[in-house]
Amino acid sequence: MPPASDLALLVPELWLAALGLVLLGVDLFVGEQNKRTVGWVAVGGLLLALVPTWGLAGAVHRPGTTVFFGSYAVDGFAVFFKFLAIIATTLVILASMDYFRASGDRQGSTQRFEGEFYTLLVFTGLGLVLMAASADLILVALSIEFVSLTSYVLAAYLKGNPKSNEAGLKYFLFGAAASAVMFYGFSLLYGLTGSTSLYVIAEKVATVPAPALTVSLALMLAGFGFKISMVPFHQWTPDVYEGAPTPVAAFLSVGSKAAGFAVLLRVVAVAIAPSGLDYVTLIAGLSAVSMFVGNLLALPQRNIKRMLAYSSISHAGFILIGVAAFGGAFGNTGLLIYLFAYMFFTLGAFFIAALIEARLGSDDIPDYAGLSQRAPGLAFLMALFMLSLTGIPPTAGFFAKFYIFAAAIERSPALLWLVAVGVVNSVISLYYYVNVIRTMYLLPPQDPARIQEPAVLRTALWVTGAATLLLGLYPQPLITFARAAALLLP
Amino acid sequence: MTAYLPIFIHLLLAVLLTAALLGAHALLGGRRPTVAKDEPYESGVWPIGSARERIPIRYYLIAMLFILFDIEAVFLYPWAVAFRDLGVVGLVEMLVFLGVLFVGFVYAWQRRALEWE
Amino acid sequence: MGELAAFIILAIVTLLPAVVVVTSRNLVRAAMSLIPSFLGVTGLFVLLQAEFVAGIQILIYAGAIAVLILFVIMLTQGGTGTALRQVNEQQLVGGLVAGALTIALLGLLLRTPWPLVAGTLPRSNVAAVGGAFLTNFILAFEISSLVLLVSLVGALVIARREQ
Fold first, then answer.
1. Which of C30, B110, C134, C24 is closest to A26 using CA atoms?
2. What residues of C are in contact with residue A119 (Cβ under 8 Å)?
3. Is the separation of the CB atoms in B79 and C133 below 8 Å?
4. What is the pLDDT of residue A304?
5. How far is the alpha carbon of A124 from chain C, nearest alpha carbon, in Å?
6. C neighbours by CB contacts (3+ pairs under 8 Å)
7. Structural fold of domain C1-86
8. Is B117 a domain residue?
9. In this structure, is residue B36 part of a structural domain?
10. Structure pTM?
């Protein structure tokens, strides 16, 4: 039997699970017109979940500390991703409430199953938390399936919209195939080492023949690569982001990606690295290809959500630099800082796309013309997010890229070429990000009417905007926090 | 492994018997097809339209609910076998498991997924 | 020797219908062919002395999943009775990739010195599975109840009509 003290370390997860169950009940008692109540309860519960998480962060746990017979990690790394998942879920729920209302006003209908939408988002948040902390292959597999199942449903949520149905179906087919391949990789790793626990595998992996381990890693990368939309497992990304409800696209591009990176990093750094296998070259190659493919395909996009999807692929490449550079003392923080900062400006950009879509019914970048006159606040924020995505100071994006490049340089001179590729790609990306700013500020509006900004969505937007600026100007607290979280190995 | 020998013999006999009966039918029975014989049998009434119609999506929902609770039952079985060794803690753990699924059951009930409209 | 013969027979029983599943132009026939394939896998589990998993394989896969797949085919317009091509113009590339992967995996399986653990099987592997659920894998066990719950909610959201 697991000791009762293990349960005390599981309070955030228990709280989130209970919140999800309560939301299902609340949803049954709330009238069709007041489904936002469910959203508010979810937001309140998620914010409260930060309290026990903060308590866990305060209690210092040695890296590699696990509970429940070595299956679940309670280290600083896991706590870091708990914060990330909870904050991202909260912001996405805030944005969804006004997204549905504004879309409903325009179309004269209400969103079907709106209460369940918030409930499923909370459960997905829990799944992300579980993914980042799993230290056992069975638990990794289960939590990835957990997140995938809810994401398929969320992507297909707009039942009347054929594109949303297509998004759900494509995401499902890709996801099922990727999971199957990944589980095959897991089973090979289990067969080679005789254990499913990552920390036990780490002790035995040195005796495993290299070819078998390489194949196992390659098969696992298919599943992780799907979650983080890494080339060559990226094909689903533009279609799914375009068709899914925009807040869901934001969630996939931030939440699933971050948790996917957490799992990838834990499996590679804990279980594979002790074997001495040269995985860094493989990861670095995938990183460079992802950056180029994402950026070059983003250039001709007219649809803002497709553009952000390709941008998301290229950012997966940037974050993979951090995975390749993992190991050195400085390298660890680069990836965490990037993921945390990336969360805010990516969510912000998607939220503006959601607002414009809900108000104007369009995702096309040319329809952003004259936004600086129609909604000056929105245009300013969008410009800020675009600059941050490019990585221009004084935004969070600059500081994130700086740290991830520094990590690679610190780790090994062999990664210098990858940094050069990263810099070249930042310059390429400048073109399509600045194109959005140009459209908003320099082109005349087709319709001079002001765009109404719903209050809740505006709050979520200003939170992301403020975080983007603040993290760029005063990053020290995040650096300290990430440094405490970055040690994975005992 | 030898415990499975009877089952294997049983399977073999089943296959052989089927093959023998079908083979005998093919060899001994005559075959004189007519148009009337090829019609689908509709209790003596002329068939109307195609038999291959779409079925309503309600069937899917019922089948899905069935699978979920089927899997729940599968989880119950090994717990029941090991119950004596697991004791009270095992009981509590199973009650938590069942509690979560009970919430799902109540939810499906309240959303009227169990009704045939 | 008897075990090898049993394995070969079961492998054929598993693989032949599986080929029908991915090539048949009739969707119902493809779906029905899954059942003997599942039964072959059941036999393989028995051969590995995993009786509990074998039982589940019959109950869930050969029973419930196959029926669900048939339901879904009957839900679609023209799913039954029409001839469908199961391959598209990518079949050459797909075949090459699948072939290369098969060769790589076969080579890997044959050449790797797999660690073999000598030990005795538990007397009743159902009880052992039950014990593992509620001790070492308790967290996975409880999370699977949540996974089942969200699947239920998700299925309802997708399939249920507006009230």
1. B110
2. 153
3. yes
4. 94
5. 9
6. A, B
7. Four Helix Bundle (Hemerythrin (Met), subunit A) (1.20.120)
8. no
9. yes
10. 0.93
